[in-house]
Design goal:
It contains 18 helices and no strands. With 312 residues, it is mainly alpha-helical. Helix 14 crosses helix 16.
Length: 312
């Protein structure tokens, strides 16, 4: 793969995820396609949520540590970014973890493991932010353990971890692929690889079920009705994977169709947007939308720093 293609894939994954988050968030207010597209066109700036804020935190952590980071390093950056911008729409878990850290000597993972009666969270928060990790470590055979290291700063339940790792794996598979390459046979092969890669029966079974539904030519709406697309990672992560595979060749159409169908719309938008961008590259994302993303230049510069570090 040429450097230009890698640059396009990295920018596509990061910008695509941020844009998906922004547009998904708008979909909560503008729930039909015509109104949504009108509002996107009218706005000078479209704002992101905690999904992108925490993806930025992962990228910042990788860069500042030159790739030699710990869960605690990541937790500190998440914590600092939350304190600076607490209005991003965080779920209940991260703020609770951060407040407890401030008044105790426990680390982030230890506190995260005590949430929800000691089960830890299996929401989609570790998955929604995974794009920079999947991009940077796309050629690393230890990507499951690396994704787990990022997840457990806030999500220690195996289902929360498995969602983040499985999504990171898919991103890693898409970076080397050129747009137009995904035949039905290759899509089935990707699903088989993800089924093998995931660690929990929950994900293996849902991915198998989704594969069957796709092979039966069920609509994405029917898939969502059966699998779900809410805040639990084992619903929204598989749904985002299937949504990507339904129409991987069009960023705009896939994203709009997907967020309008889904329940946790900003997070599904961030996940499917990151997948589409990592596969199609930055050129496939409408430039008029890119220019509206809040803090676009910072996200682009952060991505280029990730790429430079990757090349070292």
């Amino acid at each position: 793969m040429t450097q230009i293609n890698i640059k396009s894939k990295f920018l596509g994954g990061m910008i695509g995820g941020a844009l998906g988050d922004c547009i998904g968030e708008l979909t909560f207010r503008y729930g039909n396609e015509k109104t949504l597209l009108t509002q996107v066109a009218k706005k000078d700036i479209i704002r992101y949520t905690d999904d992108t804020a925490m993806a930025i935190g992962i990228a910042e952590t990788i860069i500042t540590t030159e790739g030699n980071w710990t869960t605690q390093d990541l937790g500190r950056i998440f914590h600092a970014n939350f304190n600076e911008e607490p209005y991003r729409g965080y779920g209940s878990g991260p703020p609770q973890i951060f407040r407890t850290v401030e008044r105790s000597d426990k680390n982030y993972q230890e506190i995260a493991s005590q949430l929800f009666g000691g089960e830890g969270s299996f929401g989609n928060g570790a998955s929604m932010r995974i794009s920079p990790l999947g991009l940077f470590y796309y050629d690393n055979s230890d990507i499951y353990e690396i994704a787990k290291k990022s997840a457990v700063a806030t999500h220690t339940n195996p289902w929360g971890i498995d969602g983040a790792a499985t999504l990171a794996k898919l991103i890693s598979l898409l970076v080397p692929k050129q747009p137009g390459e995904l035949t039905d046979q290759q899509k089935n092969g990707i699903l088989d690889e993800l089924i093998e890669f995931s660690h929990t029966d929950k994900y293996k079974n849902i991915l198998k079920r989704g594969k069957e539904l796709i092979q039966q030519n069920k609509s994405l709406k029917n898939v969502e009705r059966i699998i779900g697309s809410g805040v639990l990672a084992y619903t929204s992560v598989p749904f985002s994977i299937f949504a990507f595979l339904y129409n991987p060749e069009s960023y705009k159409k896939n994203l709009i169709d997907t967020v309008l169908l889904s329940r946790d719309r900003d997070t599904v938008g961030a996940m499917v947007g990151g997948l589409l961008g990592a596969y199609l590259g930055i050129e496939a994302i409408p430039d008029e939308w890119i220019q509206k993303i809040e803090n676009k230049s910072y996200i682009e510069n952060l991505t280029l720093k990730l790429l430079e570090l990757k090349k070292e």
